[in-house]
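Weekly sync notes, structure subgroup
Attendees: PM, AL, DS (notes)

Item 1: joint prediction request from the bench team. They want all two components modeled as one assembly rather than separately. Inputs as received:
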Amino acid sequence: MSNPILLVAAREFRQIAATRSFWVTLLILPLALAIGPLASHFMQKPHTETVMLIDPSGQAAGAVAERIELDHQRQVLQSLSRYSESHDLDRADPTAPWARHDHYYSDSEVKAFVAAGGAKRAAAVMQRVATPDTKPFEEPEPDYRIVPTRPAIARGSPAELATSLPGLINPPTKDHGAEPLDYAVYIPTDFASGRAPVQIWSDGAVPGQLMGVLQDTLTRAMRLHFLEAQGVRPEMADAAQLIAPMIRVNRPSPGKGHEQVIIASILPLLVSYLLLMSLMLSGSWMLQGTVEERSNKLIETVLACVSPDQLMYGKLIGTVAVGLTMVALWVACAIGAAFATQGMIADFLRPALAPLSQPSVALAMIYYFFAGYIMISMIFLTIGAMSDSFRDAQSYLSPVMLVIAMPFAIIAQAVLRDPSSLGVRIMSWIPIYTPFTMLARLGAGVPLWEVIGCGITLALFIAVEVVMLGRVFRASLLGAGSKPNLARIGRLMRGRETE
Amino acid sequence: MTALLLDHVTKDFGEKRAVDDLSFSVHDGEVFGFLGGNGAGKTTSLRMVLDIIRPTAGRIEILGRAPGRENSADLGFLPEERGLYRTMTALDTITYFGRLKGMTRGDARREGKALLDRFGLGGSANMKIEKLSKGMAQKVQLATAVVNAPRLLILDEPFSGLDPVNQGLLEDEIRRLSKQGSTIVFSTHVMQHAERLCDRLLLLAEGRKAFEGTQDEARATLPARLTLTARQTPASLPGVASATELGEHGGWTDWDVRLEPGGDPSDLLQACTERGFALRRFEQSRPSLHDVFIHIVGGEEGRA
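Output from the run, pasted for the record:
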């Protein structure tokens, strides 16, 4: 290898690879992949929230508890249905309720499912046709759990409850041994008359689901009371409560529809984020190297052997190589995790890697990644050439980074919400955001004309950028002393001023 | 053959003219001194020779070719402001610059080791630059300049910042390369080094050439100076510009005599003999380059 550009690139690469921060950064992602699920397991708040029912008359609490359990079992049945559809297990019992996938289960269907043995029985039936690779069904956690009412509270008047209950709801310091409490519900004896209010204590907003359960159950009780008072026979009044429409739910099968958009966008979004991360890191390392060459008075010795253009291209190639090495290792770790592990990571990554199986998407991703790298690295390189110290460089770098990195979070959210929204499409045509936006959108499908159009626009922008910033780079290399201001940078870019 | 030629070269930085219509040539195998005060245009001229910056006008020829990186295999350069990659080892640094000048990795390492051994740094070859003393790093920098055994070695103020030991080492290296046939151009404002090393020299003042020639030709630009010991004043002798009495002892007086410009001390000696002018001492003082520099450059800068 005697090409000066490659020699400069190799030296840049070796210099960065010899730093401790490079290796720490390189290992952060694999470590995060390994530690992340464990940490989230230990740090996650339990999903099930606790509810205490205070019902002095003992008329309504049973119905509320039953309703909560019924809703949970409906959720279990729905999960079973999705599970069966995902793993092609309907043939185990085509008549089973979980083999119906376009259906909202009525109360009576849920009760029948529970009476038939519930999830345990269903899982056993499914097991008959399951393959060894089929992961076992995991029953969803219930949203709410009823906790026993303490005797002192059960006897309390509304005024006493108003004093004692707020202190029991998620107190800041835990009383070890005491049951944690998220919500307390007081149902007065004469709630059915509509004169005394049902009261709820909570330390925040009450979820709509819990409100729905209470509203529905207590309204039923009130209506029953009303119908009976109107002379309707009790069994007729009861039957009237059970009248409900059949609801058919039309939704895509698991992994399709918006779920598919989200899953397919995960890898491209991740690549977009990796581009941003690795750019920031390798760019700042390269910037340090260029500042070192200037501050150590090295630049003249180097320029006697290589032209400014060769130095510039060598540094660009070296930085791109550093970034690609990092990303290649990270992607390799992700693929390794996807195919060598079972469980959550693998389930998450396997479908997410699917877009790569389409050569056109993979090619477009590689193109936008490279183009993004060159575009942003060129900015770092020019800043390095203009700066005598890292502090000098920071004054240029901060606003540039703000402009480049800030919109990333907005892009990511917008892409997940609607990858073809007008805002996202406009961002795709703004060259400094094109690589990030297009990478993020590619998983959800982008029209070919847009992929090519944005690609050409980006290539033209990079060509103009390399010419204009190249002029600033060349003119700034040997300059010392005061930093060029914006006006001078503008003149240098237009070629109105040289060394 | 001409190793380096500058033909009516001018360089402007905005409104400021750093080099003004400069023309000179350096012959193959010469040690050529490029002398001038601070801001005279020495570094700018050398940067143009190396194609680090381009002239505003004029033509430069280096080893028969236009300036450019294609000449780097035949060139060595030691800049005035020196620095090295702090985290690279001494040997890797020399190898890197050797390779940038077109050497193979093996040749560059072999030559680098030989140079480090010769400079007494054989044991520090694999030490990082940041661990070396300033003097050691300066030797490494010199090694990067000469690793390719350059046909033309350009040294910009090479002695600045060097301790006397390293100055001697650099002088030896210049002589060694000169003996091997390299052409050496070095800029300096320390006349003693130029006096010891230069075959020919150029004096630069305010970006313009003030003198080009050999050391003898440079000295000849100053009036000859003599110390005479005589019984009477030599002021009336032909060609004498001035005679200053230095002291008297035993009837003889010492005189500091300056001849008129272009005057030859031999002519004065002949006149003394022909006229029976009694002399006890006739000693010719050789003007130093420092005197020449002050005489020529001081005058130029005074006029500017």
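Discussion: The mean pLDDT of chain B is 89.
Action: AL to compare against the crosslinking data before next sync.
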